[in-house]
Amino acid sequence: MAKARKGGRRAAAVVVAEVDGGTAELVPDPDRARAWSLLLDGAPQSHVDLDDPAYLGFEYQRRLGHVIDLAAPPGQPLRVVHLGGGALTLARYTAATRPRSTQQVVERDAALVRFVRAELPWDRGARIRVRSVDARAGLAKVPDGGADLVIADVFSGARTPAHLTSAEFLGEVRRALAPGGVYAANIADGPPLAHLRGQIATAAAAFAETAVIADPAVWRGRRFGNAVLVASDGSLPVAELTRRAAGDPQSARLEHGRVLADFTGGATPVTDARATDSPKPPDSAFR
């Protein structure tokens, strides 16, 4: 059951609920009248502005937003599979910027889905279907070639589960994607970036083109943070992604091609047999 407690610089209340994955909190944004951040066990998960679903408050979500923007001509509907739902920020964004898109959100935490639906309801007219199953099991239900875009943003206890990091998993992603479709993933890692290097090697073995967007400090291994991996069997809009990443309020750098291959440092594709959860973030990551 959700409960509220007063907080923040305005009269809104923090809304708290116990969900399958821990304690969920909706924290009001002091600068936007009907905007909220979703935290799970203290770790930021999503930011949603009910008045402006095209607003993306988190830097990694803006980078994924660039991928959504460039996946097809402006306004063209897409078939999108979101692995990991949170507060459905990116599904709301897609519905707002690409009306008539058909979207499936796979979010294992059914209690979290009910909480978000009750407290931050989305447009009933949006073509968004939510399934509360494991992300890989939900992906297996997508018909061959049934998606133009697959976005993976799955965390359990602030870590991506091992079975969503492997070559076998990416084989399922490729099966679900239409020719020329795009895969994008939010990857969290810190020094020495071994997990990120392995994920890049795994994607490079599965797709013809791969690129990664990250904060320069993350690239240099100076801090823990998010990197957005983008891959496709078609051509990626590298030049425009580079421009948008550099122009973001929190500027990021895109790497691809030989530079990205060299960055992997000889890392090999990760298989189910040796996959591990992504690294646990340090406590300082959420301060």
Taking the alpha carbons of the first and last residues, their distance comes to 27 Å
The overall average pLDDT, rounded, is 95
Poorly predicted sequence stretches spanning 5 or more consecutive residues = 4-10
Percent of residues in β-strands: 25-35%
- State the order of secondary-structure elements, H for helix, E for strand: EEEEEHEHEHEHEHEHEHEHEH
Helix content: 25-40%
Give the total of beta strands: 13
Give your account of this protein's structure.
By secondary structure, the protein is of the alpha/beta class. It is 28% helix and 29% strand. The chain contains 9 helices and 13 strands. Strands 8-7-6-9-10-12-11-13 form an 8-stranded mixed β-sheet, with helices on both faces. β6, α2 and β7 form a beta-alpha-beta unit. α1 runs antiparallel to α8 and α5 packs across α6. The radius of gyration is 18 Å and the shape is globular.
